[in-house]
Fold this sequence. Notes:
With 266 residues, this protein is an alpha/beta fold. It has a single domain (6-265), classed as Alpha/Beta hydrolase fold, catalytic domain (Rossmann fold), CATH 3.40.50. It is built from 13 helices and 7 strands. It has a 7-stranded mixed β-sheet with strand order 1-3-2-4-5-6-7, with helices on both faces. Helix 3 (87-98) links the parallel strand 4 and strand 5 (103-109). Helix 2 packs across helix 3 (87-98), helix 4 (120-127) packs across helix 8 (176-186) and helix 5 (129-138) packs across helix 8 (176-186).
Amino acid sequence: MTPRIISKGSGTPLILIPGLQGRWEYMRETVETLARSFRVVTFALAGERASGVPFDAALGLDNYVTQVKRALDQTRIERAVICGVSFGGVVAVRFAAAHPERTAALVLASTPGPVWHLRPKHRLYARAPWIFGPLFVAEAPLRFRAELAAAFPERGARIRFGLKALGAFVRAPVSFGRMGQRARIISTLDLADECRRITTPTLVVTGEAGLDHVVPVEGSSEYVRLIAGARGAVLERTGHQGVLTRPDVFAALVRDFVERPRDAAA
């Protein structure tokens, strides 16, 4: 199988690692916005048909770490900003710890904490994803209702966002089995030691504590404590979906973070 890589824009290279659903298409607007300032390289996660990369159960999380390295090699990029969204942030942490020479900067967005455990209900979903996955999706409107109301005060804007999400779901349907597999992987990890090995400039982006009903903000904020010199930033009026609901603000945060050391050196 040939790995399938998406590359957009020009400038400083940035690898964008998707979340638990495994498909970059859900971040299409974010990709386009980031591509105004960066050369954005992204992909579907290993195991997805769209990725062109098989999943090896014996490798676990390292399937995706290898995938990031392969994307760099395939695009002939020596070093890049490594940006992980939600589950993708866990991949980004391990990559930055294992490959500091290829990590120019690290950005973690709404990432599960270094030690993260599934809630009892979600453990059940992960064990039998084809049965319980539809329930997880059905809960989404309730789970994201407050966040979407904060991000889009006007009802029309919420409807437009929902229609875009539905379109992405039709074009890039998720696999409940692979989502459950990824959830089981991260629920067994402890990334604290890997965090302490990271010396690369790091930005940790979260939503507001009262609006993220997927990943506790206090868990994500642990990366600021564990990674030397890491900075934290809050995307206001967002929860877990801030990268999607306010891509312009997220892109500006990342651009300012990446460019600031360059400005200081100048």
